[in-house]
Write a structure and sequence with these properties.
- About 40% of the residues lie in helices and about 25% in strands.
- It has helices at about 5-20, 30-35, 50-55, 70-80, 115-125, 145-165, 175-180, 185-195, and strands at about 40-45, 60-65, 85-90, 100-110, 125-135, 200-205, 210-215.
- Residues about 1-5, about 10-15, about 15-20 and about 155-170 have low confidence and may be disordered.
- Helix 5 runs parallel beside helix 8 (about 185-195).
Length: about 220
């Protein structure tokens, strides 16, 4: 016989599937708070449909969004007006990034698709002195703290799904359908590797199965 907690989790899974919302966009406003009010050049790695790049363009002189997916890049271009200081390119995040240097580099829900330390080293090389790198990433739960934080997010996740969809069922946001690979690095390994490549980097576990990393280049 199926236990009550198991049936409850199954019900929540069905509810969340019917009321999805963009967990990555949830952190966009937080990300903007880590940045100066105005800056010159910004690079958004894994730009998807371009929502974050267009937000960055409200503060930057120029924003370059790069993504390996031609279809999602075409969608980003179609959603962006010619007056917006954001452009989008199909590019490999390790070998084809716009040279820069860039005052800001952002990377949201993309780093777990890449060789971790190699990607951070590449970002560091494209960042201007005094520039800021901000990452919102995914990690694999391993410790008791990880699992408790995940459990604490279950009900808020359902509540936000309900509120953001105004109680109606909805299709998954583009960012959720385009990136489905789960993370394979635990948070402790991420933090250790990041601080080796980026001394002084600040990392923190977040709700909704995410972590954040911020680093300012000396």
């Amino acid at each position: 016989m199926t236990s009550l907690p198991h049936r409850l989790l199954q019900a929540l899974d069905r509810f969340n599937a019917a009321h999805p919302w963009d967990h990555n966009a949830h952190y966009h406003r937080w990300l903007l708070r880590q940045l100066p009010r105005r800056f010159g050049s910004a690079l958004d790695v894994g730009s998807g449909a371009g929502d974050l790049a267009r937000l960055l363009a409200t503060r930057a002189d120029e924003v370059r969004g790069v993504d390996s997916d031609p279809a999602i890049t075409a969608r980003a271009r179609a959603l962006t007006t010619t007056s917006t200081a954001a452009s989008f390119t199909v590019a490999d995040a390790l070998t084809d990034l716009p040279a820069g240097p860039h005052d800001v580099i952002t990377c949201v829900a993309t780093l777990h698709h890449l060789p971790f330390t190699e990607a951070l080293d590449t970002f560091r090389g494209h960042l201007a002195p005094g520039g800021t790198l901000v990452v919102v990433g995914l990690y694999r739960p391993r410790t008791a703290t990880d699992h408790l934080l995940g459990a604490a997010a279950v009900l808020p996740n359902a509540a936000l799904g309900w509120l953001k969809n105004r109680g109606r069922a909805a299709a998954p946001p583009t960012s959720m359908t385009a990136r489905t690979r789960p993370a394979d690095m635990p948070f402790a390994d991420i933090a250790e590797a990041a601080r080796t490549v980026l001394p002084g980097a600040r990392l923190r576990r977040r709700l909704f199965w995410r972590y954040t990393l911020t680093w300012r280049r000396p």
